[in-house]
């Protein structure tokens, strides 16, 4: 398979992708709404999502389901981080799977955290780790989704500004897709225009009323992002509310196409 093929599957050209992350058990252990790790796929697959962000265990346990639903894409999470509640070097980032594992499993893309509120020595080691993963992804023609983040930090203006700067480092390291917490419509548009690699926006933890989630997605799409990553703001809500939110989000994602472009 080629990089172009996998990129088109991960980020379709006829709409904005909706990728539902359900890989939270790697960091949060048993989390509300995800008590049975294999349950979300059948639950949400028929609600116009384009794919899921998954752990190695989930990929292995759901092979038959995805064989029956080849329209759904799979993004494999390659790493984990402890402790996510620490703000300054209190945790450790490690790989839990390889790019070769991902190719063998037949997934469409891989994803890594890029936590930046760590020491300079840890940053250097992290950049080295990411560089090796990028090289392997290029060799195996599989996209890397890299996620600049300040682990555990509150969403202050300073944090948002720093994550925007770290997104540039992710670009310089060779990320094929950049995933970032929603920094606002203007900053999203600027990242799209300046970096010119596909940008996907993460919804983050459950927060605010449903209309806030829909509005953030609308801003994301207007700004030119290629995908939205919505998980806890869907599956941690009451089922009826969650279905309504996802339906509204899905409607928005069909209002934009990207022609034959593979990237911004």
- Quickly give the structural class: alpha/beta
Largest sheet: 8 strands, parallel, barrel
Report mean pLDDT, rounded to a whole number.
91
Number-wise, the strands total 10
Properties at a glance:
12 helices; single chain; about 260 residues; about 45% helix; alpha/beta; two-stranded antiparallel ribbon; eight-stranded parallel beta barrel
Report what the structure shows.
Helix 10 runs parallel beside helix 12 (239-253). It is built from twelve helices and ten strands. By secondary structure, the protein is an alpha/beta fold. An eight-stranded parallel beta barrel has the order 1-2-3-6-7-8-9-10, surrounded by six helices. A two-stranded antiparallel ribbon has the order 4-5. Strand 6, helix 7 (120-140) and strand 7 form a beta-alpha-beta unit.
Write the layout of secondary structure elements.
Elements: H1 3-10, E1 17-21, H2 25-28, H3 39-44, E2 51-54, H4 56-61, H5 63-68, E3 73-77, E4 79-82, E5 92-95, H6 99-105, E6 109-115, H7 120-140, E7 144-149, H8 157-172, E8 177-181, H9 185-195, E9 199-202, H10 210-222, E10 227-229, H11 232-235, H12 239-253
Parallel strand pairs: 1-2, 1-10, 2-3, 3-6, 6-7, 7-8, 8-9, 9-10
Antiparallel strand pairs: 4-5
In short:
By secondary structure, this protein is an alpha/beta fold. 44% of the residues lie in helices and 18% in strands. The protein is built from twelve helices and ten strands.
